[in-house]
Each structure stands twice: as structure tokens, then as C-alpha cells.
Amino acid sequence: MGKYYEHIPGSLISWINAQKIFWVATAPLSESGHVNISPKGFERTMHVVLDEESEDGQPLEAADADEDRLKKATSSHVWYEDLTGSGIETISHLRENGRITIMFTAFEGPPMIVRLFGTGKVYEFGTPEYDALLPPEKRQPGSRAVIWIDVHKVGSSCGYSIPFFTYKAPRMRLHRSFINREQQDFDFSCQQLESSSVSDSSSSMVVVPSQGSTTPSTKMPELPDSQGIKNYWRFNNVESLDGLPGLLLAYTSQKAPGDWRGRGVSFKPDDESITTPPESKTSDRSLVAIFASEKVVADVGKVLVGFGAGVLVTGMFARLWLK
Asked: CA-CA distances (angstroms) from residue 77 to 45, 61, 129, 256?
């Protein structure tokens, strides 16, 4: 039977931290708008913030507390690092109405489904709130925003029919893709700084226009449209399927993404091979058994036919002999 709470109880905090995947559901206010569900799953993206503070007066995250403390704790806030994708539905819906639900499902151990109902806020790359939660040493390649959720209701239910799945490994394809784009942005930023240091600053300094500012009359050098993560955001993440605004600031930020090459960060290709499920192996064995049994039946039939023919011929010769 389902249970509901006004906050995340301590009994669920550790369980949430252990999950490898969660789903985010949002929707626009329009009746004809597209309801969106997005899977999220890279490790270290979900963060549970405890209702108590740390010793230095800062918000205390569940990952920094021991098990005994978590059992007594509660949480009314969570946030996750939003990695770049081809769509921008979640951010667009939150800008319009703030409604959001996050769902976790157990794929191992006892069955469990947990839903967090709340109101979300968007902190884009380059904003003070984003920088405070994701300093450079914690930020991941492709990170475009922080989604902060004030939780007002928590629901848990059984999930008796959810199948078991075994966790294999995190996918690194997104990291491998956007680490290159971010490096292009960083290298371009360095080139512009070098150029400005040897030229008249009044005519050659490159300034990225902030939101709402006028465009300088001098044509500024730009990174090719096919390069850089900021260009990806500018061309793919500014509007939802229903025309709602998406990213507003990230692609105009003067802050350059991380120097991943300088930090020696790289990622190996994923093992995307598909192993044969146990059910298929069982089916194959069953088919082999069927074929084998059919062959045995056929061989036995041949023996019986041969035996019957021999009896018939022997009987005919016996009759002729007696005559």
C-alpha cells in the first residue's frame, strides 16, 4: 500500500542515493502541449540536501553525512546536474509553471517506487547559483544547468511488477562528445585573450554580449557554428517543442567551460555490445531439444518400419515353404 510524506524521510534518503537512474516529468500549461518524461542516470548528478546545516552553516548534502545521521534526517530539497541533450523541455516547462515530479524505481533488492513532487528552479551555466553548487572541480562535461527542486510531497509504492535488472556501467558517450566541444570553447577563449593582449584593447578586445546588451559595431570573431558547446546550446536548447523559452544565459556567458585537456581528463569508449539474455539461451536449448527428439522419433520409425517389413517377408516365405 502506498505511503505519503511531507518530506523525504531518512529511511528513503540512502535508498535514493543508491539508485542509478531516475525519471523527470514536467508539462506545459497548454492542454495541447507536450508532456515530457526524461530519463537521467549518470552517477553523481542527483543530490539530496538535508534539512539541517553543516557545522559551518552551509547546506548539508546526504552524500556528506554518515548512515546514522541519515536515519534521523529529513530532506525537503534535491537538485541534479542537468547534462546537455538535444531537447530543453524540462527547463522550458519549469520556467513557465515550475511543476515537476521525479521518480525512482528499484531494479534490485526489494521492490520500491518513490516519487518526489515539487516545484523546480533553473540555474544555468555561468550564474552565481550554478557556480556555487557546481564549482569547476565538480562540474561534469556537458553540464548546462542545475535543476533545484523544493519537495512538498513524497510518495512511495510497491513496484511489485517491475523486473530485475543488473547494472553494468555508466555510459560515457555524452561525456566523450561534449568534452571535445567544451575544449573548443576554452581554446577559442584563450586565443581571443592572446589576441587582445597584443592589440589595442579598445578595438580588438573580444567581449561576449550579456543578456539584453547591444551588439558592438565592430564585427567580433566567432567560433564556427559546428564547434563549441555554447553554439550547441544556442542552436538546440533555446526553445521547447511548444515554443516555450529554454536556455537564456548559458550560451551568452563570458565564462569558458573547463580545460579538460589541461586537467588530463579523458574517457574511454563504451562497451555497447549486447549480451544474449538468459531467456534466449533457454529458448535455444529448448529448440535443440525439440529438434533432437524429432530426429530420435524419425530414427525409431525407420527401425520399426524395417522390422515390420522383415516380419512380412518372413511370413510369406514360410507360407510358400509349407505348401
From this structure: 14, 10, 15, 29
Distances (CA, A) of 34 to 26, 115, 248: 9, 21, 21
> 3-class DSSP state for residue 277?
coil
Q: What is the spatial distance between Cα 149 and Cα 49, in angstroms, rounded to a whole number?
A: 10
pTM of the model: 0.79
| CB neighbour list of residue 263: distance below 8 Å, 6 or more residues apart | none
Total residues found in the chain within this entry: 323
Contact between residue 93 and residue 26 where contact means Cβ atoms under 8 Å apart = yes
pLDDT tens, position by position, 117-154: 999 999 999 999 999 999 999 999 999 999 999 999 99
162 close to 105: Cβ distance less than 8 angstroms: yes
209 pLDDT more than 80: no
Burial environment of residue 28 by CB neighbours within 10 A (0 to 12, 13 to 18, 19 or more) = buried
Provide the grid cell at 229: 558547446
Q: Are 234 and 88 in contact (CB under 8 A)?
A: no
Q: Is 109 left (phi over 0), alpha (psi -120 to 50) or beta?
A: left
The model's confidence at residue 208, banded by pLDDT at 50, 70 and 90, is very low
C-alpha cell recorded at residue 263? 586537467
Tell me the pLDDT tens digit for each residue of 183-196.
Answer: 999 999 999 888 87
Contact 110, 125 (CB under 8 A): no
Q: What angle do CA 136, 129, 52 make, to 5 degrees?
A: 100
Tell me the pLDDT tens digit for each residue of 85-112: 999 999 999 999 999 999 999 999 999 9
Q: Give the list of residues 6+ apart from residue 16 with CB closer than 8 angstroms, or none.
A: 8, 46, 48, 62, 104, 114
CA 314 from chain centre, in angstroms, equals: 79
Other C-beta atoms within 10 Å of 190: how many?
Answer: 13
